[in-house]
Amino acid sequence: MTKGRESKPHIGIYGRRNNGKSSFINCLAGQDIAIVSDHAGTTTDPVKKSFEITGFGPVILIDTAGIDDSGELGQKRVDRTLKTLDIIDLAILIIASNSWGEYEYGLVSMFRERDLPYIIVHSKSDQEGPASDFKEMIHSSTGSSLVEFSSYDKRNYEDIISLIRTTIPEKSFIMPALLGDIISYGDIVLLITPVDVEAPAGRLILPQVQAIRDILDNDAVAIILKEREVDAFLQKTKIKPALAVTDSQVFKKADASVPDDIPLTSFSIMLARFKGDFENYLKGTPAISKLKDGDRVLLLESCTHHVSCDDIGRTKIPRWITGFTGKKIEYDVVAGLDILPRPITDYSLVIQCGGCMITRRQLHNRLNPAIKAGIPVTNYGMAIAYVQGIYERAVAPFTREGKGKNSYL
After folding, report:
1. What is the C-alpha separation between 1 and 60, in angstroms, rounded?
2. Is 223 helix (H, G, I), strand (E, B) or coil?
3. End position of a domain, from candidates 237, 270, 303
4. Per mean pLDDT, which range of 63-77, 109-123, 357-371 is the poorest?
5. pTM for the full model?
6. Residue 15: φ, ψ to 5°
């Protein structure tokens, strides 16, 4: 399951079977968007619903299977439920009938491990409200207050909306600019976009479209051209762009064509700064020079697509790194959010793609195991720039350091 538009906060609803999760969602939505039944286990798989909560705004709610599901098939449903923890901005734990035990403690522990804000709601309170000592126990064991709720009489509905508003991290609402903080009104930005076998027929790739929109949103001018047109364009027009952004695969050509006094970066590095762990990328990229014979490198490709014979992740980056280091290195490529083929500690370096098709939280969660294990991480574009000798120039638009080329090497 992947997250939709990043500007919409994702809220996951968790709890045991028949605790009223689906009724809670329907009440928030003001419509029947989740199946409600007295039969436990009605919700079998996580289901995403996009709508607007009155008094709050647009969100995506994720209705999940009961955390106490049983049997072999039930365990698979629980596993799918737990996977949603990596894509949400807020967790709401639904309990009922003054019941609290290992399932709830387990969920709260997982919320905390992921630094996920959460709210605890006692559902079906029109039938049986939470006892005073039960509420005190919840507060003492979790540090969170319990909110009574009933989908029947909508008690405390406004309080829950207020809690959602104040508990979701501010970063879940804010869409930072891709380039807006480094370009100004009226600036000309040159976008170098190769049209090769990997380019989708009849359209641009998502990072290129996002860059164009961001440039327009910041009242600047975008000029889009192929790499072989750059020299002629600059010579004929005498235009001096405020910034040039290139596809990483033609970095060397762009570096040769774009004068040194024009800042140059790539779409992938732009995304690395926008939603990746840029500081750890900066620390980790030089580890390419330290790779040894027999080391294993993991390439994380966050989308799934048709694989060409000269694929960037499976073919080009391994070829460039092997040529740069002169070492015999093993490479694993994992697409989407699939399970890794081996323990993260087996790798000497992790290289993450730009991540245009996944969210910031998903990308950071994908990298965190490597970072916690002390394994260097980098990004496709930054790795390419490094092995092609233009790393400092490529990251300079987003850092305060580095004015000349190649000094990192």
Report:
1. 13
2. strand
3. 270
4. 357-371
5. 0.67
6. 155, 180
| Nearest residue to 190 via CA among 242, 251, 236, 261 | 242
User: Is the CB of residue 183 less than 8 Å from the CB of residue 220?
Assistant: yes
Which residue in the block uniquely carries the two structure tokens 């500690």?
A: 345
Residues 34 and 22: beta-carbon distance below 8 Å: yes
The residue range of the domain holding 348 is 278-387
Residue 131: pLDDT over 90? yes
Which residues, 6 or more positions from 279, have their beta carbon under 8 angstroms from its beta carbon?
none
- Whether 60 and 49 have beta carbons less than 8 Å apart is answered as yes
**What integer pLDDT is reported at residue 2 of this predicted model?**
44
Q: Are residues 19 and 140 in the same domain?
A: yes
CB 86 within 8 A of CB 44: no
Instruction: Give the up-direction half-sphere exposure of residue 400: CA atoms within 13 A in the CB hemisphere.
Output: 0
Query: Does residue 401 lie in a domain region?
Result: no
pLDDT of 35 strictly over 60? no
93 half-sphere exposure, CB direction, 13 A CA radius:
27
Whether 230 maps to a domain, the answer reads: yes
Q: How far apart are the first and last CA of the chain?
A: 40
- Residue 366 domain-assigned (yes or no): yes
Ramachandran class of 162: left when φ > 0, alpha when ψ lies in -120 to 50, beta otherwise: alpha
